Amino acid sequence: MQFRTNPKNGDQLSALGFGCMRFPGMPARIDFEATEKLILTAVEQGVNYLDTAYIYTGSEAALGDIFTRNPGLREKVKLATKLPILKCSSMADFDTYLNRSLERLKVDSVDYYLIHNLTSFKSWEHLVEIGVEEWIAKQQEAGRIINIGFSFHGPEGDFEPLLDAYAWDFCQIQYNYLNEHYQAGTAGLKAAAARGIPVIVMEPLLGGKLAAPLPEKAQAVLTEEETSTDPVRLALRWLWDKPEVTVVLSGMNALSQLEENIATANDANPGCLTETEIRAVDAARAAVAESYKIPCTGCGYCMPCPRKVDIPGCFNAYNASFAHGWFQGVQQYVTASGALSGKLHLASDCTQCGACAKRCPQHIDIPKELGTVKRRLQIPGLATILKVGLRFIVR
């Protein structure tokens, strides 16, 4: 495993971090045995940064049970979790959610604690008004929070002011080769590094979008040079090529994914990207951007929908209809609708309540875009066709 130095405190952090938002079985019910095996295998092979959050259903509790069942494991890792600021309206709320996280994790302190999902400088100012700076100082003095940082999901112009608003120990940004000019972007990455602030990268594969087979032009570039055409390897190497990146988080839910990512991390250093890989990324970026119409990463923050619409599934189907053809998009849409399980919920079921849009880190106008999905993929009479067809399947 390659390790990178946290310039703030000298911590040696594994280049590959374990993102704990997509454990096996999540979000319905975590497969604990599979999750424990993944975590133990990762740590055995050098991964020492585990990233979870209060709002990742069941994740903190699963990690807490894993720590309890495996004495000594906690001391081998740097543990990160997050404060759900959308639930906080007073300093007492800060205490409540940190206490709950510590109880679930069965630990006395968090190594890397994040103000979760800052979307603007104004959102930070609101937290300051209710005492977050005083609260952070008290928690760090008590040793319950070792390092304090924030995760960012706002416009590029708000990122640098946030970097300068507090003496941050680290920050976390969404970053990949399609997001160089989105949210913090490359400019934000370099701005943080210039201030000596370590950067943790989330969404390196854009919710799995960059794990799909490479576009033909990009694959051809690599094939001609007899270079690996693995899209995940290419996306991760693109990140680790940059010296400003400290840790890249990956939400691995299978041993094969873990092993492949560790193998990639083991030989990826700043400057590792070849000219061939750079040309392949350029070709992939151009091709993917053409078909990537709705910037949904599949994070699931918008869920659950009161009308039980699978919002990420609808958006994924819509994007697939441009990337892989309209018919395949319709097939994915039918699957996302739940028709095959007998629980039909289409984009047309949206009542425009707007609850989802308020929670979206990408600031997608979800009700509007569900209407876009309906117009492209929901052929007239689809609901009736699916309901009638389901009766025959059940019989």
Describe the structure.
- The chain is α/β, with parallel strands linked by helices and 395 residues long.
- It folds into two domains: 3-290, NADP-dependent oxidoreductase domain (TIM Barrel), CATH 3.20.20; 311-394, no CATH class.
- Helices cover 46% and strands 13% of the residues.
- The protein has an eight-stranded parallel barrel with strand order 3-4-5-6-7-8-9-10, surrounded by six helices. The protein has a two-stranded antiparallel ribbon with strand order 1-2.
- Helix 2 packs across helix 3 (91-105) and helix 8 (216-224) runs antiparallel to helix 11 (275-291).
- The longest helix has 17 residues, at 275-291.
- The radius of gyration is 21 Å and the shape is globular.
Features:
TIM Barrel; globular; 46% helix; 395 residues; 10 strands; 16 helices; two-stranded antiparallel sheet
